[in-house]
């Protein structure tokens, strides 16, 4: 059983309460109408496929129902840290 620390609830909870919600720290375009089709497609569909530390969003679906970010090692599955969406990670990574 994997336990994930929710930074909003302030405690570890069971993995089944959470849902993965995609890559973190993706810069949303300020003016989508100013983008070319290729730039828009890049924003919508292109994501990193990291082997190592990766910053990703998680959703505490069966708890506080809030989003947060996690730094997870994609090979070992170890979650190094979790932090609120408006915070910066302490651990390195590629996103
Ligand atoms: Zn929570």
Automatic annotation (TrEMBL):
Annotated NCBIfam families: soxD
Pfam family, one: SoxD
Superkingdom classification of source: Bacteria
InterPro entries linked to this entry: SoxD (IPR006279), SoxD_sf (IPR038561)
Coiled-coil features, chain-numbered ranges: none
Gene Ontology MF terms: sarcosine oxidase activity
Name under which the protein is recorded: Sarcosine oxidase subunit delta
Alphabetical GO biological process terms: tetrahydrofolate metabolic process
């Amino acid at each position: 059983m994997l336990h994930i620390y929710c930074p909003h609830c302030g405690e570890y909870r069971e993995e089944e309460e959470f849902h993965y919600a995609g890559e973190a720290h993706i810069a949303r375009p300020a003016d989508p109408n100013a983008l070319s089709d290729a730039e828009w497609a890049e924003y919508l569909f292109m994501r990193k496929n990291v082997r190592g530390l990766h910053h990703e969003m998680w959703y505490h679906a069966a708890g506080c129902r809030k989003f947060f970010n996690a730094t997870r090692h994609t090979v070992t599955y170890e979650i190094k840290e979790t932090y609120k969406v408006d915070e910066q990670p302490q651990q390195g990574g590629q996103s």
